[in-house]
């Protein structure tokens, strides 16, 4: 169901875009912060974990 915030389509689009940016910006910020803090050994550990869980499930 689509809710119309305003009768003019351009204003409705800008309002939807603004709300989307406000809602998504903290998610992107904290996700990027986590990516920057990840080291090479973390990647190796996660690959080993994914492979081990994948093989144990089959």
UniProtKB/TrEMBL annotation:
Keywords: Membrane, Transmembrane, Transmembrane helix. The lineage of its organism: Bacteria, Pseudomonadati, Pseudomonadota, Gammaproteobacteria, Enterobacterales. This is Conjugal transfer protein TrbE. It comes from the Bacteria. The keyword Membrane applies. The chain crosses the membrane at residues 12-32.
